[in-house]
Amino acid sequence: MAPSDPTGQAPFFIVQNTGSGRDNAQDVQATIRQVLDAAGRRHEFIAVDDGRQLTAAAQTAVERARRHDGIVVAAGGDGTLSAVAQVVLGTGLPFGILPQGTFNYFGRAYGIAQDTELATRCLLAAQPEPVQVGLVNGRIFLINASLGLYPQLLEDREAYKRRYGRSRSVALWSALVTMARAHRQLAVQLEHAGQSRTLRTPTIVVGNNALQLEQIGIAEADELQRGRLVAMGVKPVGTLAMYGLVLRGWLSRLGDAEHVFSFGFDRLTVRIGRSRRRVKVAMDGEIHWLDTPLEFTVSPQPLLLLVPPEAQRAEPA
Q1: Are 63 and 20 in contact (CB under 8 A)?
Q2: Portions of the chain given CATH number 2.60.200.40
Q3: Which terminus has fewer CB within 10 Å in the chain: N or C?
């Protein structure tokens, strides 16, 4: 049962992934403690240093939040937020976030500051609002889910980050290097709205974040406001053309490219070849193997996200 006063004295149970984020995990925790202690707000950290431990940590946080009429909070990158949200969804508990990632699309879309101290202060005054999340084969994603080239980009990006550090420039450089290599084309069948379409493509991305879609120039971003998701894909192209698409994305004009297709949908089934029983899918930056076909839809239950008051919301940079 959700606490009757989620922004009053309800304790915070904070799941922190110390293995992710752009800042020192101990410094992050110290900053959060300092703000909450100064406000007299009860809190407890449930810290893990391995993303594989997040589900168990989130389950512990949910159990304690239910027992003490509390709130579950996730501190980490978008993958951490998604993993904790997977456990919180459907419990009726409010869900707070303290973004620590490279891009932080989920938090930025709802005006949640990227600065830890400011985000924690805003968390104290935040109110729960129902927000849409996507599902693929029953697993949630907050920002996007993808297959094909994009998961490979993410895997290479993590390797570059471990070597060169976490920054947007490192992420961009690793993407350019990945696209320079030969990549496979997927033979896919897309089924939605009673229609079927067969094509070859290097990647399919399903988006649930208006900020990200708007920044790359996808016109269907407003489909999210109607409770739908947005699918995007690329027709078979060479390396130079792929670089051109990246440039268009920087200029917020990706949707204008002749090689790109996109559409909104309520439910989408993706079938991949005849022999592919499982496929690698990236969800909010984390890689998973899922059985095919892939079924994409909006979760019938929203996530009760703690959102700052209008006056405290950060502008999405």
Answers
A1: no
A2: 140-298
A3: C
